[in-house]
Amino acid sequence: MTNITTISSADSENKLYKRIAFLGGAAWKEDEEPYIRAFDTAKLLAENDYEIFNGGGPGVMKAATKGAHAGNGKAFSITYHPNKPKRHYEGTDPTNDVDMEIVTLDYFDRTKVLLQNTDVHIVFKGSIGTLSEFGMTWVSSWIHEPNSKPIVMFGDFWNEILDTIEKNLFIKPAERKMLTICNTPQEVLDYLESLNRN
């Protein structure tokens, strides 16, 4: 598996949870709420010495990069470049100007490398790609519990989705408790800071 090296500030090196993966929809535009929320969150986290990771595409991924740079931080992408266009894969965005790119073998490898090489995963509103990423981090964290990675679900709407999942599938209470709902960038920062204090 690819090693990811980063240039970290002294403060960032002291954080146990410092590499933050941004997961979310590729279709969101700059004037739409999920993009704005991802940008604002990445900016605030970068200002507080967190490193921002994403899949190198448009939407939430690009917002994360732009936010990291606005916060004087760095953004890193884990990408997949298919050998021929895939009709339903967003690919990479040339305007997502990350500081370092790691190229992986395929879509599933991209997700795996992104999740394995980050410490906390934030899930914004998206489509089925976001659901696949969410499912992968959720089950992986459950399998590796108590050494699981914190998962932040950004937005109250996730409660309704999780309630429906819990109602119709066999979900253990401890599995649901692995997920933390945050509604603002400040709530995300406060949660991360609490993790790093413990």
Automatic annotation (TrEMBL):
PANTHER family: CYTOKININ RIBOSIDE 5'-MONOPHOSPHATE PHOSPHORIBOHYDROLASE, LYSINE DECARBOXYLASE-LIKE PROTEIN
Signal peptide: none
GO cellular component terms, semicolon-separated: cytosol
Organism phylogeny: Bacteria, Katanobacteria
UniProt name for this protein: LOG family protein
